């Protein structure tokens, strides 16, 4: 039997297609969606201001007005200071929630007796809205930084914990049996089978937890804070500075958007073996 000669054309055909065109197309679609949103916002704001006058034009500034408010806040240093204050609280609270949620979730997902012990408490606390605990957090930890950090950690813990446990529970049992039949120890099963298979769910929980962290920090800064994006929004509401209120909301959205992209990049890097296997 003669050996088959692999020509350059055949080799190129066997290589998986480059992911860059698809990534560029996805990025273009995201940018287009943002531009469409800004265009609709501008049309509604300007149309109401000059044509329809359904409501007070001050209630919906144009994107240009928000940009002007942002430039002024940057020049005074107010915006940078508030971003740093909120990010510091979010990073500390979310860091605690991520570590606790992953560690406890891995333990509960891999050890059945612990699951039976912890699950009733989790199911009892999880339906309660985090905002219901905000006044108690202030009473327990005071109006300082600790109450805000603890509040964020409590709120972000549940999505991280839940997705971690679910990720472990839905690991393909065929993979576990195959690894066990090849002589893998319990630690090998955990490191090389269970943890990689559960990683997508864990990353999803981290993304959900980070988004929830910003949701609750804004509420916490409404009540007891002298800095932060939530404080900036609430302070602007007091003086009816709608452009500054929208500026705070837009900045929060941009930060969440960037962090979501970073977490997706981390997920792609951690799961690069999956892409190679599919290729």
Automatic annotation (TrEMBL):
Keywords: Cell membrane, Membrane, Transmembrane, Transmembrane helix, Transport. It is a multi-pass membrane protein. It comes from the Bacteria. GO terms for biological process: alkanesulfonate transmembrane transport. The keyword Metal-binding does not apply. SUPFAM superfamilies: MetI-like. Gene3D superfamilies: MetI-like. The chain crosses the membrane at residues 31-52, 90-112, 124-143, 149-168, 212-233, 245-263. InterPro entries: MetI-like, MetI-like_sf. Residues 83-263 form the ABC transmembrane type-1 domain. One of its GO terms (cellular component) is plasma membrane. Pfam families: BPD_transp_1 (PF00528). It is found in: Cell membrane. The keyword NADP does not apply. Probably part of an ABC transporter complex. Probably responsible for the translocation of the substrate across the membrane. Belongs to the binding-protein-dependent transport system permease family. This is NitT/TauT family transport system permease protein. It comes from Belnapia rosea.
């Amino acid at each position: 039997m003669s050996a088959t000669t692999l020509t350059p054309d055949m080799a190129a055909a066997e290589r998986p297609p480059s992911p860059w065109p698809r990534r560029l197309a996805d990025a273009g679609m995201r940018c287009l969606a943002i531009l469409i949103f800004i265009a609709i916002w501008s049309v509604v704001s300007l149309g109401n201001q000059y044509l329809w006058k359904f409501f007070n034009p001050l209630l919906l500034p144009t994107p240009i007005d928000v940009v002007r408010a942002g430039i002024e806040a940057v020049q005074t240093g107010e915006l940078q200071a508030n971003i740093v204050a909120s990010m510091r609280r979010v990073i500390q609270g979310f860091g605690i929630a991520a570590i606790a949620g992953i560690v406890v979730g891995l333990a509960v997902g891999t050890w059945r007796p612990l699951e039976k012990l912890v699950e009733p408490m989790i199911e009892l606390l999880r339906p309660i809205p985090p905002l219901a605990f905000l006044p108690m957090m202030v009473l327990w930890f005071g109006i300082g930084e600790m109450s805000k950090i603890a509040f964020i950690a409590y709120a972000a813990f549940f999505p991280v914990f839940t997705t971690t446990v679910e990720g472990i529970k839905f690991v393909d049992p065929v993979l576990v049996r195959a690894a066990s039949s090849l002589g893998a120890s319990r630690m090998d099963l955990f490191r090389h089978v269970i943890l990689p298979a559960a990683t997508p769910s864990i990353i999803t929980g981290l993304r959900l937890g980070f988004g929830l962290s910003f949701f609750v920090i804004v509420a916490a800064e409404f009540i007891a804070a002298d800095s932060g994006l939530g404080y900036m929004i609430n302070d602007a509401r007091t003086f009816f500075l709608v452009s500054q209120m929208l500026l705070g909301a837009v900045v929060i959205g941009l930060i969440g958007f960037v962090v979501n992209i970073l977490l997706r990049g981390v997920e792609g890097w951690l799961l690069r073996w999956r892409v190679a296997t599919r290729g």
